[in-house]
Each structure stands twice: as C-alpha cells, then as structure tokens.
Amino acid sequence: GATEAAARVYAQALRAAVAAGGVPPLPAGAGRRKAELHAGLALCQLRLGLPAPAAANAEKALTLQPAYLEARYRRALAAAAMRDLETAAADLRAVLREEPAHAGARRELRRVRGAARERDARLARRLGRLFA
Predict the structure, then answer these.
(1) Rounded to whole angstroms, how far apart are CA atoms 28 and 26?
(2) For position 44, which CATH number holds?
(3) Residue 35's closest CA among 67, 80, 6?
(4) Among 41, 53, 86, 98, whose CB has the most other CB atoms within 10 angstroms?
(5) InterPro entries, per this entry (predicted)?
(6) CA dist., res. 96 & res. 40, Å (int)
C-alpha cells in the first residue's frame, strides 16, 4: 500500500547496487538482482501513474535478464498506458508464448486489442468524413 515509499526504497537499492556492482558486464547473480530491482521499481511507477519511467526501468531489467517475463509484462503495461498499443500487444504475446496461463497478460491483451480496434474505427470514421 505504501507505493511511494516502496519506490524510494527500490531507487536507493538500485543506487547501492550500481555502486557495489561496478561497470558492466555484471556477474550473473548481480545482474539478476539488479533486474529484479528495476522490475520492482517499474511496478511501483506503474501504480503511481508514471508509465514512461516504468517502461524505462522494465527495459533496463530486460537488458540485464532478457527472459524476465514479469519485466516484459510490466513494459507491456507501461506501453499500453502510453497508448503504444502495438508494442504492448507484442510484449503481451511474448509473455503468453512463454507462460500461456498468465491471466494478467491474457486479460491485458484483450483490453489492448479492444483499444486498438476502437482507435482504428475512430480513424476510419475520420478518414471517411475527409474523403466523403
């Protein structure tokens, strides 16, 4: 429930991990821990309504751990919040390929597809008026 406080703690932990980890490439364990911190911070930022920083942190987590499904899912949520529906759908499909039972990804993909259909219908109506 204390999302802002959690975000501060994740940011502090990331600063400490950067200071302790040195320059890349990081050892496997350190990379995994840092990826988890970035993904946790991304979740806090999503809950705070900050999709751009959330996407950036999810991307950093995926750079460190490309197979990290929750980071990919959080990047998809951030992309959807920023109305980048194609990127969101691609990430959600990737999550579902790896974990078909991921209920959140399935639900969000339905929502993203619906939003894309609505967007396309609005565009078609506008173009129809333009050329009518």
Answers:
(1) 6
(2) 1.25.40.10
(3) 67
(4) 41
(5) TPR-like_helical_dom_sf, TPR_domain_protein, TPR_rpt
(6) 20
Tens digit of each residue's pLDDT (9 = 90 or more) over 55-83: 999 999 999 999 999 999 999 999 999 99
Q: According to DSSP H, which parts of the chain are helical?
A: 3-21, 28-47, 51-64, 69-81, 85-98, 103-131
State which amino acid sits at residue 45: Q
Q: Residue 59: which of 3, 48, 49, 51 has the closest Cα?
A: 51
Q: Which residues contact 121 (CB under 8 A, 6 or more apart)?
A: none
Distance CA 74, CA 102 (A): 13
How many structural domains comprise the chain? 1
Please enumerate, as own/partner, the contacts of 95-104 that have beta carbons within 8 Å and a separation of 24 or more: 95/69, 98/67, 98/69, 99/69, 102/69, 102/73, 104/73
pTM of the model: 0.83
What's the rounded mean pLDDT across residues 94-101? 97
Domain that holds residue 76: 2-131
